[in-house]
Amino acid sequence: MICAAGFAAGDENPRTAKKAYILFHMEQEQKTPASQTLGAFTCNICGEHNVSSADASEREQVTCAKCRSTIRFRSILLTLSRALFGLDLKLSEFPILKSVRGLGFSDSDVYSGRLENCFSYTNTFYHREPRFDLSRPDEKEFGRYDFVICSDVLEHVPEPVERAFLSLSSLLKPTGILILTVPYSLEPETIEHYPDLAESGFAEIDGQTVLVGRLRNGEYRVLDQLQFHGGTGSTLERRLFSDRSVRLGLAAAGFSTVRLDATGSREFGVAFSSPCSLPISAGRDSFALSASGVTELVREIAAARKESAILGLIRSSRWLRLGRALGFGPALPPPSLQR
Ligand SMILES: [Zn+2]
Description:
- This protein has 8 helices and 15 strands.
- The chain is α/β, with parallel strands linked by helices and 339 residues long.
- The chain has 3 domains: 2-186 and 238-288, Rossmann fold (3-Layer(aba) Sandwich), CATH 3.40.50.150; 194-236, no CATH class; 293-331.
- Helix 6 packs antiparallel against helix 8 (318-325).
- The protein binds zinc ion.
- Zinc ion is lined by residues 43, 45-46, 48, 64, 66-67, 69.
């Protein structure tokens, strides 16, 4: 099953996707200009209240004055919250669930430390410890993770990119969830910038970084005018995905449920001005907390009940909301019966 919130982005037909794109812009044009800016929002990462005049199309612009989060960072945490809990929780409201294992690939330290506090989460890197190379995954890690965050990484990995999609799928438990962001267009196909390279490495010539590649026919070539994102090395942009090829890549790797989240959250400063590069959650099955995760959550709910002297506090407790969202929790009398 492939589904999408807001757009017909789950449709395999690129013409339909383009139609959705056009409709989206027609709807946007009918809104006031103010709706294109973030405006007032509460950062779901640090809790800071912000008022921003930044445009919703600037997914990489720092828009939280306190933690310096961007729309992309906040969208990752929002998508994770919706995937794990079915609720829009701020990171400070996440329950402490150390039985839940998470893995990140070069996640920003704006939120990685906070995830370490909530879960058994490890952030990994291509160039430094703890290392993880999606092209050469450590098979001992397969099947161990409840969630994996892969944000703006797949456009940098060497070909074949299908190998990276498979690694992401293999790392997850059967009920685990992938949180994915990657720049993509609505073009029919992915544009590979270096399709003929069998192998490649970087070299410095007169202070300029160039790519030295061996072609499939054995010849060598030096390429300049490279596009890097935030540095050099593994941050070389190797491709611009199409939305269709992202969805096909996920499906081929075994992800049967793919959700492109176009709705965002104005409350949390997560807005999108186009149906491109939306945050994605993908799984082979619906996400489910393990038995030990459920036990941890029930303990948190029980502790909240015990510590709360006033029943109303319990009623508004985030743990109770979580328990109910997940199908369990204490039964409370209706407000009319309270003394
Ligand atoms: Zn913040």
